[in-house]
Write a structure and sequence with these properties.
It is a single chain. The protein is an alpha+beta fold and about 525 residues long. About 20% of the residues lie in helices and about 30% in strands. The strands form 7 sheets. It has a 7-stranded antiparallel sheet. A hairpin with a 4-residue loop joins strand 13 and strand 14.
Length: about 525
Amino acid sequence: MGEQVKELFNWARRRKIMASFFVGFTLVVGIMIGSVISGRVSAMKSFSGTDAAHLSVPDPIPSASSFSGIVNRVEPAVVNNATTQVLEKKPNSKMRRSKPANPNTNPDEDNDPMQDFFDRFFDGRQDGPPQAERSLGSGVIVDKRGYILTNNHVIENATKIQVQLNGDTTRYTAKLVGADEDTDLAVIKIEVNKELPIAKLGNSDGVQVGDWVLAIGSPFGLQATVTAGIISAKDRAGMGKQFQRFLQTDAAINPGNSGGPLVDLAGQVIGINTAIITGSRGYEGVGFALPSNTAIGTYNQLIANGRVTRGSIGVRFEEELGTNPITLKSLGAPNGVVIEDIEPGSPAEKAGLKGGDVITSVNGQTIKTGNDLVNPIAQAPIGTKMKLTYVRDRTQKEATVTVEDRTHVFPNTAGRMGDQPGEAAPIEFGLHVDNLTHDRAQRFSMDGKKGVIVTDVDPASFAQDDLNFGRGDVISEINHEPIASLDDYRAAVSKLKPGENVVFKVLRRQDDRVLTVFLSGVVPADNEKQ
């Protein structure tokens, strides 16, 4: 028994010695590792620098081939236009306006790139009801008093137009001076208590294919954006309306660039950026600008008359068919345009012209293209007498025609007659009203009531957003003046001035009762009353 105890004791002592050895070994290794790390840290802390020289920012050196000088001259005159619009949905067509992608639209519905040619950079489904759309575009100041040239489609149907100057966060409310659908140009004006920078319009006839140009504007709302390219083609016709002949460029034009300037290397505006051809609703290398010469002529008429007047003699033709050399030879005409049709009652009919005649000259000027025929007549003052030479049955004849207003010669196709002076006033405040007839009174349970009934309210208008009008409301008083008819309504509204308070007394049907409510607000500026 004693031997066993002794062996157990020796075994325990040997284990104690081994354990002590391992503990000591571990301490030694730990001390060594700590020394190494400490040494490295000390080495890092003791870094005393190198003999390398410091880098410095050099003085700026302008690039010899830079466009910056042109941009610095023109860009201050380029503005950002923000509009609130009520868009009517129209059927799809091959030529339509270019707009941002709508998340509710199937991208496979239309894959024809020409479908997007005249989509005007705005959103919305074609089969939906009218909607308020907030959109962005561009413009260029051409008069220091605040006159701005832009595209008609930028401000079309706008209930409010706001302009932001380059480098300025203030939004100025603009007034529409006039617009022309045929060239897609418009003039707006802002009131600013200072002279504004302007861009000079050049002569677009001088630009050549291959010349460098800059497009300046606010693509996708990115203000003061500049892109560069060349003129790809001139006099590009047959892609828009009759009076649109474009400069084609590969300078990047995107949604929001519409209305901005296309600038040559002399710093002159030689075009107004208008449209693109695209399959993706964005830039794909083909953009179009209306030539500055077209813009100048349109601008001058808009600021003088508020609309553009074009002359006409009432003839119709198709460019490609009407100028075919084989056709002309067979008709005995050396040159000219073959007339397809004559508008009844037009100057051409009165002068004895007929379909099939070939007009070969106007006032002695040879006709070789449709433009040669249209331009001198369209630009002539109304009432001007013009001498035509034409060929019929291989015999040359002459006629004298008196130029008339195109909107009168082609009343159904030559623009909206409502644009002419003397027409009914535009819808005030976004309110569409009519007499409260007996039938309407019964339908809306307003028997025995007097006033005018609201038949519709434009989205995003003063009437909707500020006054909260609704369809079926009956206006019985305006600023305490009784309203019993449309004449009373027009008379009362005509007295209202921007900045004044206005109070409408309104009869409103709710359930089985007629409520009397008062809708009040501050009369907006003239351009906000549409």
